[in-house]
Amino acid sequence: MASSNPDRGDEAAESAAGEDEDTGAQITPIVILSEVAVTTGEEDEDVLLDLKSKLYRFDKEGNLWKERGTGNVKLLKHRETGKVRLVMRQAKTLKICANHLVLPSMKIQEHAGNDKSCVWHAADFADGELKEEMFCIRFGSVGNCRNFIEMVEGIAESLQKSAAEESKESSDAADLLLNLRVDNGKETKTAEEVLSAADSTKPEDAKSTTQTKAEEQPKE
Q1: Inter-residue contact 87 to 74 (CB < 8 Å)
Q2: pLDDT, average across residues 44-50
Q3: Among 119, 77, 69, 78, which residue's Cα sits nearest to residue 98?
């Protein structure tokens, strides 16, 4: 028989709710998890460029483009060595899908028929070993694609100039060293000639010179 008193119904509801309330008991976890420092290998590098994109790799055997992943492509410059590398990780798994240095010989150009994409060749290390790869990357806008191309080309040109300057400095140093060796050789040769000339003076020549001087003296 249903109760006609609403107060009793409220008391029953409060009693049931009280059973679910926190009693203050503390439960010790079976496994204690500690914080682990995660390193990405990018701690000593500065980010020059960071753009969302989709990366493709050309499969020579199948003669087609295969998707490598969607994520952010970065250009990172090492603070000590000054080297710049291109790194891209998949958005969800963070798996590396591209990892290679930007070299002076690197050439990059727009993909034919798509001004949001560009292609280039590189010796890539994403799979743990160096492999010659042909990449194609697609951005969400033409502006991002152009920024990427201009940044890579600028880095490559800067590396070319640095390499040329270093080569010239090495050449100048080699020429200077060669000139020093030549000068030292001349000085040594001159000294040897002097010694040789001194040794070539014979006693007969000295005697003849003495007699000549004696003859030139006036007679009494």
Answers
A1: yes
A2: 96
A3: 69
Give the span between the Cα atoms of 157 and 153, in whole angstroms.
Answer: 6
* Distance, CA of 99 to CA of 41 (rounded, Å): 11
56, 97 contact by CB (below 8 A): no
Cβ pair 84, 75 in contact under 8 A = yes
pLDDT digits (tens, 9 = 90+) for 174-200: 777 777 766 565 554 555 554 565 555
* 78-109 residues labelled b (16+ CB within 10 A) or e (exposed): eeeeeebbbbbbeeeeeebbbbbebbeebebe
The per-residue pLDDT for range 129-155, each reduced to its tens digit, is 999 999 999 999 999 999 999 999 999
Beta strands in the chain (DSSP E): 45-59, 64-78, 84-90, 96-101, 108-111, 114-124, 131-139
Six-digit token pair at 188? Answer: 């040594």
Can you give the pTM of this predicted structure? 0.63
Query: What is the average pLDDT across 30-43?
Result: 80
Alpha carbon of 42 to those of 32, 105, 135: distances in Å?
29, 24, 22
Task: Give the span between the Cα atoms of 40 and 86, in whole angstroms.
Answer: 14
Which residues lie below 8 Å from residue 78, measured CB to CB, with a gap of 6+? Answer: 44, 45, 84, 85
The neighbour count for residue 42, using CB atoms within 10 Å, is 14
